[in-house]
Amino acid sequence: MPAAYQTAINYLKTNRPRFLDELIEFLKIPSISTDPNHTASMLVAAEWLAEKLNRTGLENTQIISTQGHPAVYADYLHAGPHQPTMLIYGHYDVQPPDPLDLWMTDPFSPAIIGDHIYARGSSDMKGQILASIFALESIFKNGSLPVNIKYLIEGEEEIGSPSLSALLEDNRQLLSADFSLNLDAGMAGPDLPTIVTGLRGLAYFELTVYGPRQDLHSGVYGGVVKNPAIALAEIISGMHDSSGKITLPGFYDDVIELTAEERRQFSELPEDDYFYLVQTGAPELFGEHGFSAAERIGARPTLDVNGFISGFTGLGSKTIIPSWAKAKISTRLVPNQNPVSVRQSLESYLNRHAPAGVTWELVAMAGGSPYLAPDEIPGRQALISALKSVWGKNPIFKREGGSIPVVNEMKTILGIDSLLTGFGLPDDRVHSPNERLHLPTWYKGIEALVQFLYNLSNHKD
Ligand code: BES
Ligand code: MN
After folding, report:
1. Given 3.30.70.270, 3.30.70.360, 3.40.50.1220, 3.30.420.110, which CATH number is that of 203-255+301-366?
2. Which residues contact 70 (CB under 8 A, 6 or more apart)?
3. Which of 59, 137, 206, 369 is the most exposed, having the fewest neighbouring CB atoms within 10 Å of its CB?
4. How many angstroms separate the alpha carbon of residue 321 from the centre of ligand 2?
5. pLDDT digits 0-9 by tens, 1-33
């Protein structure tokens, strides 16, 4: 390591309180991409980031407008043509904080309790974005950055990145790089540094079932029409068989089955089924028969109902037959499935199995393709060494169940792979009430990134 490395690490340590203050500032901005009432906050968050990147020493900062929420670009390209160029990806948008009454503290008034900071977006992924910026800052302040960096931070990841493929296509040259660093994939535990080798894709739908023209008196009309809530429940209950397999026609056609060697690797992961029982708090685990929990998350497709609404849901009772019922239904996809064929599978299931007496409408929402990393990605060895030196052990390699649509799009449009890692933990409650970030792990992460940046350079001292 160059001499500047140690000064950068010392700088990191003395600046922790200010890093925390800046994280708090960023977390206060309610950048909820899916909520039309928060559009103004999206721009505030993008501008906050652009300003932060500028002050850190990045250049050519731009807020790139899209059909939806803007993205932020910045670069530092002075390390020379013989040094690698890394495109750091991030998303500044967050999931809605609901249900609000389950939060111990306000989701947009960050609170430090013990070793954690609590706020929506703290782990997923404002803390991760700032970890990379603080790592760069500590290098800039104590020497020069030995590699070329570009940043792309979007505002629509949590809604499936609908504007991103157009943005990548329109800016191929601007975004060209040797590989991408994506800190949105997390780690398996505070003492388990992780490189994520695969992600699932997503196909998300809204299914509405219509019955009578309006809600009807359930005594006056009960017995003569099909109840849309019951019809929707029947439709949904037929989507799995008793062994947990999905019954949509052709749904598994493109699924690549696990090899014996891959199954062996899954069996060696530190998380056993009991780990998932503890994490979820469910009375027992459930899923496709014949696969372990880790396999079902990393390498098997799933179908879930994310929300279900119909009829009278207020206090007390009201005797009606609802006029409609709606469910939010999503599938997680594995290689080589894609959201378009899954939509066809779902439509053909509905054509065959929707009961008589109702009509239905299907609207496709967020989507993204799965990703499987190749063994060779530039920077991979540099990242392994950095994680190893900070945590004192080799990282584990793991396929994850979450989705990050940009990863496949960068591969197909920009031709680059992503190094997937991050400092979010399984118990950070991402997308749930009381989301939090484990600060000791965050500080270690920043240190690992400093080391990674030096490792990446072709001229090691
Ligand atoms: N950071 C997550 C994805 C993730 C979680 C990757 C855990 C690896 C491990 C990301 O912000 C996310 O939540 N993505 C959405 C994407 C979707 C809306 C297209 C998801 O997975 O639900
Ligand atoms: Mn997320």
Report:
1. 3.30.70.360
2. 42, 43, 46, 63, 64, 155
3. 59
4. 37
5. 888 899 999 999 999 999 999 999 999 999 999
